[in-house]
Amino acid sequence: MTAAAPTLTPEEQQNHGNFLDAPKLQPGITRFWLIRHALVEQNARALLYGTMDVPLCPESLIVQQPMYEALARRLPSDARWFITPLSRTRRTAEAIQSAGYGARGLVVEAGMIEQGLGEWQGLRHGELPDKLQLPPHQFWPLSGNESPPGGESMADVCARVGATLDKMAKENTSRDMILISHGGAIRAALAHALKILPDTALHFSIQNLSLTILECHNVAWRVVTVNELPGI
């Protein structure tokens, strides 16, 4: 005897048939447009800068102007804008808005800041290995469970970012949110959405000015795109 097919609610019937995979993103969905800030200046890149407030590379702001213009065209026009407390996210947001998006208010969301490296911030990359208690990650300076003195492990960052995303989703239901953040925080967002370990999330490439889109459907998360490079 064949089992009867389960009865779907009206909402489930609407969702049935992969309507979310249409070429155009559906309106009225709680959606995060996560963008990693632009390239920081050369001297800062030689250091573990973490939550240090380092400036952007002035040359890249000029050379990568087409990428800012592409982001301005790609992003939803009626979105709410969020940045972190670090000036590199504010400057990136302003550059995108100046490239054709138009000026919008910027709300600071501290919960999406980069991994705090505590006493290790400001070290040159070559100085770090001797201080580690755990083998470093292949694609990150330290293991997901390594806790810098006075800082955060990536596991801590995943918990912080996950709680922040849940809060923002509740406060901005059915809205588009553009969030200029950081490589570590965006990887942590993917860990939260996919329910994966920090070390697994660190395998994602999140390049400067790349776009990652996440959707929140009640308590279910959906990944739309990761590390999409504008105009490429």
From TrEMBL:
Transmembrane segments: none annotated. Residues 1-21 are annotated as: Disordered. It comes from the Bacteria. Pfam families: His_Phos_1. This is Histidine phosphatase family protein. It comes from Acetobacter musti.
